[in-house]
Specification:
about 350 residues, alpha/beta, Metallo-beta-lactamase, Chain A, Arc Repressor Mutant, subunit A, 2 domains, five-stranded mixed beta sheet, 13 strands, binds zinc ion
């Protein structure tokens, strides 16, 4: 099957040769731009209309979704099932609103609750979060700001309960267009990629993105002293998991279709290596250092406004350095410090 036949260039009109439509809607986040929702058109009249990801909960996104559907002679009411790639607000935010009009089902990975809980932790969890921020060397004002910013985002949408929880390798049966669920944790714990075997396409969510390297958000342990999932290490394993698939086209949630996912994964590897080297040199020159101190050096402009992604980048890469024996992590008076051991060899 050629790339044209699977609808790379034809998103705006329904084509008999293509089962896929794309509706971009604005996220309102500077630097992120639109999120792509994908439609799977029914094989025959009466079959289900499926929407992969919903867009963020905003009037602009709602309008864009309605306009995109109208262009295809469809309405929100026609949607039978939503499949989520993961539970971030730009993918999940409009689910409830769509459901209210269409009575559609919502299917998502069984770890969706973890992402929901991160957005809306129980009130008693705040102390634990402050403990971990302090452990990373983040001052109290910055930690409070991050927590209240997240609460504001969570207030904007309703976390609709899924009708079905997907497991790794589960097949989503769609007439003539079955999708295989590939669990790809890293960016978040419930991230999945959907694989369509006959047309050899991926719907990659935020796991594979053409213009930005996905941030692997650090997950705090759910209790003091608990095990922290190593998000970036999990992400590396998830990249290895999707690599062997012979994808002709990968449809990402942000940006244009990807025609060579292996080249993209290779480019992620190179930028990871560059970052590991930079952090290692920072530690060699100035260590021992807290995650926050490394973050201030590596992201002198971003750390103040984007503490969560900055901490995620530092902690994730330091996990990789620690696993390879290039640094040692020690706790000193309630704060983590990274101690330089050696510099990773360039590839
Ligand atoms: Zn995401
Ligand atoms: Zn996203």
């Amino acid at each position: 099957m050629s790339k044209e036949e699977v609808g790379v260039t034809r998103f705006s009109k329904k084509e008999s040769s293509s089962r896929i439509g794309r509706i971009p809607t604005p996220t309102g986040y500077a630097g992120l731009g639109d999120i792509n929702s994908y439609l799977i058109f029914p094989e025959q009249a009466g079959d289900e209309l499926i929407l992969i990801d919903t867009g963020i909960c905003s009037d602009d996104a709602w309008q864009a979704l309605n306009d995109g559907l109208a262009e295809l002679d469809l309405r929100v009411e026609d949607i039978d099932r939503i499949l989520l790639t993961h539970g971030h607000t730009d993918h999940y935010g409009q689910a409830q609103r769509i459901h209210e009009l269409s009575n559609c089902q919502l299917w998502a990975h069984e770890n969706l609750w973890l992402t929901n809980e991160r957005m809306r932790p129980p009130p008693e969890r705040k102390e634990l979060e402050l403990y971990y921020y302090a452990l990373w060397g983040v001052d109290r004002a910055l930690a409070d700001k991050a927590i209240s910013r997240r609460a504001k985002i969570a207030d904007r949408y309703h976390a609709m309960e899924p009708d079905h929880l997907l497991k790794d390798n589960e097949i989503v049966a769609i007439p003539g267009f079955d999708l295989k669920t590939i669990h790809t944790p890293g960016h978040c714990p419930d991230e999945v990629v959907y694989w369509q075997e006959d047309t050899q396409v991926f719907f990659s969510g935020d796991h594979l993105l053409p213009n930005i390297t996905p941030v692997c958000l650090t997950q705090m342990p759910r209790e003091k002293g608990g095990v922290r999932p190593r998000a970036l290490s999990e992400y590396q394993a998830s990249l290895a998991k999707v690599s062997p698939y012979p994808a002709l086209v990968t449809y990402p949630s942000h940006g244009a279709p990807i025609t060579d996912h292996l080249a993209l994964i290779e480019s992620y590897g190179l930028s990871t290596d560059r970052r590991l080297l930079k952090i290692s040199r920072i530690l060699e020159a100035g260590g021992p250092m807290t995650p926050m101190a490394v973050g201030k050096e590596l992201f002198p402009k971003a750390w103040e406004e984007q503490i969560v992604p900055v901490m995620s980048e530092i902690i994730g890469h330091c996990d990789l350095l620690e696993d390879a024996g290039h640094l040692v992590e020690r706790e000193n008076k309630g704060v983590i410090e990274y101690h330089y051991r050696s510099t990773p060899a360039p590839r």
